[in-house]
Specification:
With 475 residues, the protein is an alpha+beta fold. 39% of the residues lie in helices and 18% in strands. The longest helix has 25 residues.
Length: 475
């Protein structure tokens, strides 16, 4: 048995055809290209801006995180066709040394990204406009929310993006124990609405209010003023300006985590006796009779929820509804708290399981925000959002956005073409492994590009179904 790389026009990314159809349907990369200024002399342009952006975004979706990968990927005629390049074999390149290389190499793509930082149009001919890209991501995300939604849940969260070098904005974060950025994400279900790269020398909620003040009007513009917006976040976002602004807006509410403190613990203490009674009522009665200050240590798990009114001594402007969870885990107390602007009497909450009582609000509504952690993992692990290794902050922000658009592309594929299939709820990494990584032989003639996919591909029926659904959507 012998093996070498003399197979000719073969590709391991046959699934790029599906991504091509998703991009053709939603025109994501064309819209993204409109957020740049291209000041190049058209006489010498060989790589059009939309093609380069597709090359970068599709490359991330296909698993190529490093720009250096494109020095080999630029030879792939299938990727060239998926990116919209007409000369898929690169036979019409101007310089002899570029013949056979239809796509841009690492240096060209690097200049594209560094153009986000530069302001001198003499040296950087392609410049990114951050405010336009930010607005595009928001508008595309809002457009992807189901039209008949009556309650739109927005999940806010921050995460760490480790820095390995001397990048601009380098700062040591004590909680994460390393030098990192602190990006802010906002998702609606699995739909990204906001991806903001921040330095880590700040409060985790910094910029969240400004983000919400842009997101809420965008949602109102599409869904009207009567749609309910529910904001969920952990205790890092439980800040007076954030809560006060939400409370001032009609049909906007929050459910936020609340950090523990001695005053809250004192109010919740009686509920731990009730939790212990669920495990052994007789032992609890004996402990009370003996004058014990705390419930006895009992094996097992039990929890009780207690509603209370609470106001901080200084930071809060008024008293708010707080729900405490008095949970015992094998004898260990595990108190948790949330604060909410919901009274439970709103008309739209009636009949909704999430808001039936304090336990439901905590367990079904608030705890469901944990799924956002999976979305962030997809962003960083599957779409390489943490590949922020350029020197400049603005260029790293552009990389974060490119990753987010790559995620949005994969999300459209999952939601629009794979509904009802075994991959309908698969992560971006699983989609890539099982659906996009398929061997393909590419034959280029005068009239067509013929792609022959592997006959032994296990998910050929799913692939065909997805492709058919995308073509129907395009039509």
């Amino acid at each position: 048995m012998e093996a070498d790389f003399s197979g000719g026009h073969l590709s391991s990314d046959g699934g790029s055809l599906l991504l091509r159809e998703v991009d053709r349907t939603h025109r994501l990369c064309d819209k993204l290209a409109a957020c740049f200024s291209d000041l190049r002399d058209r006489r010498f342009v060989e790589h059009e801006l939309p093609v380069m952006l597709r090359q970068r975004v599709l490359g991330l979706a296909l698993g190529y995180e490093d720009i250096n990968d494109h020095d080999k990927l630029r030879l792939d005629p299938l990727l060239a066709a998926a990116c919209g390049r007409e000369d898929v074999l690169g036979l019409e390149r101007l310089h002899p040394q570029d013949k056979g290389r239809p796509l841009a190499g690492k240096s060209t793509l690097n200049r594209l990204e560094l153009g986000a930082h530069a302001t001198n149009e003499r040296t950087k001919k392609i410049q990114a406009h951050a405010e336009k890209i930010e607005a595009l991501l928001l508008s595309e995300g809002v457009a992807a929310i189901p039209r008949k939604s009556q309650v739109i849940v927005l999940d806010f969260d921050a995460t760490d993006d480790r820095i390995h070098g001397g990048q601009e904005g380098r700062f040591y974060h004590g909680y994460y124990g390393d030098y990192c950025y602190l990006p802010l994400y906002v998702f609606c279900g699995d739909i990204p609405l906001w991806a903001q790269l921040r330095t880590s020398d700040r409060d985790g909620s910094d910029g969240a209010l400004e983000a919400l003040q842009k997101i809420a009007p965008a949602i109102r513009e599409r869904f009207g003023k009567h749609v309910v917006i529910l904001v969920r976040a952990d205790s890092g976002f439980c800040r007076e300006p954030f809560m006060a602004w939400v409370e001032s807006q009609p049909n906007v509410h929050y459910v936020l985590g609340l950090a523990r403190n001695a005053r809250l613990a004192q109010q919740l203490a009686p509920a731990f006796w009730d939790s212990a009674a669920q495990l052994d009522e007789e032992a609890v009665q004996c402990a009370r009779a003996a004058g014990a200050h705390e419930p006895p240590v009992l094996p097992g798990t039990a929890r009780t929820f207690l509603e209370m009114c609470y106001q901080t001594l200084k930071s809060w402007s008024k008293e708010r509804r707080v729900i405490g969870k008095a949970e015992l885990l094998e004898g260990k107390a595990n108190p948790r708290y949330i604060v909410t602007s919901l009274s439970g009497k709103e008309a739209w909450t009636q009949g909704h399981a999430w808001f039936a009582d304090a336990a439901s609000l905590y367990e079904q509504c608030y705890c469901a925000r944990g799924d956002m952690e999976n979305r962030i993992k997809e962003q960083q692990m599957d779409l390489f959002a943490d590949r922020t290794s350029t020197v400049h902050m603005k260029s790293n922000q552009l990389r974060l956005w490119l990753s987010t658009f790559g995620y949005l592309l994969m999300r459209h594929l999952r939601a629009g073409a794979l509904a009802g299939t075994r991959l309908a709820k698969a992560s971006a990494g699983t989609l890539r492994l099982h659906l996009l990584k398929v061997a393909a032989q590419v034959t280029v003639s005068v009239r067509r590009v013929h792609v022959r996919l592997c006959s032994a591909f296990p998910l050929r029926e799913v692939f065909a179904q997805a492709h058919h659904a995308l073509r129907q959507a395009e039509a």
